[in-house]
Amino acid sequence: MDTPLAVIILAAGKGTRMKSDLHKVLHPIAGRPMLLHLIDSLDRAGAVRRVVVVGASGEQVERAVAATGVEIAWQHDQLGTAHAALQARDALAGFDGVAIVCFGDTPLLATETVARLAERLEAADAPTVAVLGFRPADARAYGRVIADADGTIRKMVEFKDASAAERAVDLCNSGVTAVRTRDLWRLLDAVGNDNAAGEYYLPDIVTLAIAEGGRAVAIETGEDEVAGINSRGELAAVEAGWQAARRAQAMADGATLVAPATVWFAHDTQIGRDVVIEPNVVFGPGVDVADGATIRAFSHLEGATVGAQADVGPYARLRPGATLAEKAKVGNFVEIKKAAIGVGAKVNHLSYIGDAEVGADANIGAGTITCNYDGFFKYRTVIGAGAFVGSNSALVAPVSIGAGAIVGAGSVVTTDVEADALTLVRAQRATKPGWAARFRDMMRARKAGK
Ligand code: UD1
Ligand code: MG
User: Fold this and answer.
1) Residue 345: pLDDT over 90
2) For ligand 1, atom 8, which residue shows the shortest CA distance?
3) Which atom of ligand 1 lies at the shortest distance from residue 103's CA?
4) Any idea what DSSP says for residue 136?
């Protein structure tokens, strides 16, 4: 499309049905505020101007979108969706093109759909307004689109104002509306609030356009894409839809998901080919898993990089800054934070490795802990290539274990260990032969009163 595209995202509503201190449009889907999903999709559709209309708790939204460079318009009183859209007029002064008005609480709108809706205005019948409709399994309280079979709209009606016959119509309004800016402001100005809610309704611009002799048309899309989020239940339902699509994508891209429904991805999870993901794995944001890695059951990963052929879990936790090189192994009940685990290195059982570097092929015994924190500052532990740290050792950082060194089990290491040395930090062993037997005899005699 040659006509420049602007988007107006409405996000000034109070979102009362969420019952939350967090603004509705900032509730996350796949670990990312829903509004940012929407902005991304609109950017890909080629939007050259983007305005987010905010009101109640608008500062929260302003902060969350600061990095995207979108413009902010304020709607101080929430008088309805038409009134909200009108607040973008100053921001878009001088802009001549197509505007897409959409809702911050309808975040999974696809790039292609936005383009399709904008292009609909350019068709030969030159409609004034194009509305994105959908036919949900449960039409709930969505506004209804009363249209002919060819998509020509006769009327838009909010659920609260609809007759029984209108409520029976299954074509619903997604809220996403395309209109040229040269018509938009005039139509919005003309919207009144004589309705059941006493609000200025955006869908009324359709009725007004028709009254002016213009055409209004609906195009349709699937329910998953435009389901609105007004409550926690609807948030969970949209999340579920997003996850289902992402799992299908991961499998299509060559990953094995043993029990797909139990794997949770984040918006930016990267999964390579021939990765095997066992049941009940959760990916927080910022995870990259290279080809051929295995993520075993009940592992939780966030901000982590997993190298090719690496093996993680079961029951592993990779926290931000964990990077596993090729063929590294991190086993059960191991937590890794801000630490690089070298090629082929193993941390197989019950360990905490934080603020550390573990060299290639090093072996970290069961129960090893890097003591990285003194209550005030964090310190680093460096473990050389091929080092062997015995079970249940405490490495008190800052400390380094040289390449090839061996640390005896149970050691508390507070100073550096040189390469290829053996370090044992244990109390001297004292053994008294026969002592235990003599002790028992004495105590038994005492108890018997002899
Ligand atoms: C709206 C539509 C309905 C549609 C549904 C789709 C209207 C009147 N109704 O209903 O036809 O089926 O979305 O999900 O448009 N907002 C403002 N300022 C306001 C009021 C709302 O910015 O004064 C914003 C909200 O933050 C939200 C969006 O507009 O992002 C929609 O508002 P909401 O109250 O959720 O409308 P619905 O009842 O869902
Ligand atoms: Mg809504």
Assistant:
1) yes
2) 201
3) 30
4) -
DSSP E strands in 66-197: the ranges are: 71-74, 98-103, 129-134, 144-147, 153-157, 172-180
Tell which residue, 316, 354, 351, 353, has the closest CA to residue 332. 316
For residues 56 and 78, the answer to whether their CB atoms sit within 8 Å is yes
Q: Indicate which ligand has the atom closest to the C-alpha of 159.
A: 1
Closest ligand 1 atom, residue 15 Cα? 26
Q: In what order do the strands lie in the sheet with 346-349?
A: 256-257, 276-277, 294-295, 311-312, 329-332, 346-349, 363-364, 388-389, 406-407, 422-423
Tokens read off for 181: 């800016």
Q: Which two tokens stand for residue 236?
A: 């969970």
79 burial (CB, 10 Å; 0-12 / 13-18 / 19+) is middle
CA of 17 to the centre of ligand 2 (A): 10
Of the pLDDT bands very low, low, confident and very high (cuts 50, 70, 90), residue 87 is: very high
Ligand 1: which of 10, 79, 81 to mutate, most ligand atoms within 8 Å of CB? 81
Tell me if residue 27 is catalytic: no
- Tell me, in angstroms, the distance from the centre of ligand 1 to residue 161's CA: 15
Query: What's phi and psi for 307, nearest 5 deg?
Result: -75, 170
DSSP letter (8 states) at residue 417? B
Residue 100 · residue 92 · CB < 8 Å: no
Atom 29, ligand 1: which residue's CA is nearest?
10
Note the pTM of the prediction, 2 decimals. 0.90
Q: What are 7-47's pLDDT values in tens digits?
A: 999 999 889 999 999 999 999 999 999 999 999 999 999 99
Quote the strand ranges of 189-261, DSSP E: 216-221, 256-257
Inter-residue contact 302 to 284 (CB < 8 Å): yes
Query: Domains in the chain and their CATH numbers?
Result: 5-226 (3.90.550.10), 232-423 (2.160.10.10)
Q: How confident is the model at residue 313 (pLDDT cuts 50, 70, 90)?
A: very high
CA of 106 to the centre of ligand 2 (A): 7
- In total, the chain counts a number of residues equal to 450
- Ligand 1 proximity of 172 Cβ (cutoff 6 Å): yes
